[in-house]
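Example record

The entry below shows one chain as it appears in the dataset: sequence first, then structure tokens.
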Amino acid sequence: MRRKSRKFLLIILSSALAMAITGPAQANNSKADVFTFFNADGSPAAGNVVGKATLKRSKKGVNVTVDTTELGSGNAYTIWWIIFNNPDACAADCAGSDFGTPAVEGSVMNATGRVADSDGNARFSAFLPVGFMHTNPSSGNIRQIFGPGLQNVKGAEIHIVVRCHGPSTGDVEQISTLNGFCEADTSADPMGNGCFDIQAAVFPKP
């Protein structure tokens, strides 16, 4: 029986994101390091660089490609768009704590998901169109968690978060939803199937 996971961990990203921010290569094509804030087993990590990500901005939306390592072999992962449409309204470095500021126009949306290979590597690719992402809550595959979506392609700060969902079950829900196949309490088994945000990449405002 599936149970909901512990609270989404975006609120703790502030210090890790501040360490990892890298400037864009150019306005329409930016590169960023993928860094860890949790290890594959869920234990805290030190912001080590484990991969590379590329973001392309266009009039229609944004495309991201993430090549990353040091994931759990055979584990299921989702990646998430964390959009700060107006980063100038963030208190400092944009983080989950800024979602409470309406002027930031923060949004969290599913990008894609997949299972890591036997070496703990994975490549993710996704496109996010401009505007509100329409969803069908009755399907159980809710992609837009909150916010107005991508409204400011040229000026938004965009974070990509990689989320672990534990050993793959083969069910599409596990690689397409926020809490797919997550355990509610892993205190007795920290290596268990509690979902947690394992890695991230940051693309500042161009």
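Notes for this example: Helices lie at 14-20. The radius of gyration is 16 Å.
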